[in-house]
Amino acid sequence: MNTINETNFQFPKQKSVYKGKVREVYNIDDEVLVMIASDRLSAFDVILPRQIPFKGQILNQIATKMMNDTADVVPNWLVANPDENVAIGDLCEPFKVEMVIRGYMSGHAAREYKAGKRVLCGVAMAEGMQENDKFPEPIITPSTKADNGDHDEDITREEILSKGIVSEADYTVLENYTRTLFKRGTEIAAKRGLILVDTKYEFGKTRDGKIVLIDEIHTPDSSRYFYADGYAERQEKGEKQKQLSKEFVRQWLIENGFQGKEGQQIPEMSDEKIIEISNRYIELYEKITGERFVKANTENVLARIEKNVTEFLTS
């Protein structure tokens, strides 16, 4: 199976390209962005050495579906999807914060709680909680890129405003949009028998000053889901929750001695492990969307993407 590790396209009127951890974004004439979802896998802010078949297609198609399913409550950047791995949208200036929202005390929040912290990003967490308990109300715990740009760092609302990273007026919009999207995402998940545990949203400003949702939304890379069936019983017994997210990759890495810390070696991923992860992503897609996943033809995947994008841009 051919996978997408990196792309080096030259599209008509292309001005620049930005390569993120798993996506590559092409600026077309300072008007639209072509976002290509690669099959790279990142965890603990490290890109792992091997790609996962169909991962990019899965994330792109979930994000596209979720963008369409939330467009009536929050505006977004999306214009078209000319290819299974591609989203094209309006050029935006991204805000330099990720809006993380948590309905449950899981993942990073649980790790911080276990370490004795009771305040996360300036938000208090009650005493006596156990991992995966529901918060009384969802909490927003924003993050921003470290100065070297390699990893995300927790930040408080007050720091964002005092450092001038986002104006108070704009940040109020980001908070309102984040809560609105999480509410809709929770409703969508419930219809699939899932609980949307936590997620992150990214926003940008269009050339005419409109704040819109950008990047991915409600994907297993950006979100954590629990199965609703049996959640309460598992919680009562102190058992691990059955979940849909990229957490299974993180847990496998932790079990094999890797958490992205200096001096740690990334464990080798066998062909069997790669196929297992790919199948898990397909399961995630089908459960989250309620639709059967149809694998795209990857025989000449880069040529396919280049042809589809070029035809769209020149039509």
Keywords:
single chain; 315 residues; alpha+beta; 7-stranded antiparallel beta sheet; 5-stranded antiparallel beta sheet; globular
What can you tell me about this protein's structure?
It is a single chain. By secondary structure, the protein is α+β, with helices and mostly antiparallel strands. The two termini are 31 Å apart. The longest helix is centred in the middle third of the chain and has 24 residues, at 168-191. Helix 1 (55-70) packs parallel to helix 7 (271-289). Strands 8, 9, 12, 15, 16, 17 and 18 form a seven-stranded antiparallel sheet that branches. It has a five-stranded antiparallel sheet with strand order 1-2-3-7-6. The mean pLDDT is 94. The protein has helices at 55-70, 107-114, 157-162, 168-191, 231-237, 247-255, 271-289, 301-314; strands at residues 14-19, 23-28, 32-37, 42-43, 46-47, 78-83, 86-90, 92-94, 99-104, 119-120, 123-124, 134-140, 143-145, 152-154, 194-206, 211-214, 223-227, 243-244.
